[in-house]
Amino acid sequence: MTADRLLVGVDDAAAMLTVSRRTLQGLIYDGSLPSVKVGRSRRIAVADLEAFVDTLRHEQGDGPVK
User: Fold this and answer.
1) Percent of the chain with pLDDT over 70
2) In angstroms, rounded to a whole number, what is the distance separating the alpha carbons of residues 12 and 43?
3) Dihedral of CA 56/61/64/66: which sign?
4) Rounded to whole angstroms, how far apart are CA atoms 43 and 60?
5) Is 54 in contact with 66 (CB distance < 8 Å)?
6) Contact 62, 55 (CB under 8 A)
7) pTM confidence score
8) Angle at the Cα of 19 (from 7 to 39), degrees rounded to 5?
9) Structure confidence at residue 60 (pLDDT)
10) What is the mean pLDDT of residues 29-34?
C-alpha cells in the first residue's frame, strides 16, 4: 500500500496505525506525530509513522520493530 509513497494522508495514516482519524489528529495536535502541509492537505511521512511505532515499542519495553 505505501511501499512507493513517502507521505500519506490522515485517513491512510490512521488506517496504518489502526486508530481513528480523530485519534490520529490528536497525536498530530499534541506533537507526538509530525506532519506537513502540502497545499491545503495534511500529510504524514511513512518514516515518521514507523518511528512513532518504534518509540511506542521502546517505551513499553518491546524493543525496536524489525
Assistant:
1) 88
2) 10
3) negative
4) 27
5) no
6) no
7) 0.82
8) 30
9) 84
10) 96
Average pLDDT over residues 31-43: 96
Specify the residue for cell string 497525536.
27
Grid cell listed for 64: 525496536
Distance CA 63, CA 25 (A): 26
Helices and strands of the chain, counted as H and E runs: 3, 3
**pLDDT score, position 4:** 84
Q: Are the C-beta atoms of residues 28 and 14 closer than 8 Å to each other?
A: no
Report d(CA 45, CA 36) in Å as an integer. Answer: 8
CA distances from 29 to 2, 23, 32, 60, 64 (A): 23, 10, 8, 22, 25
| Rounded Cα distance, 29 and 23, in Å | 10
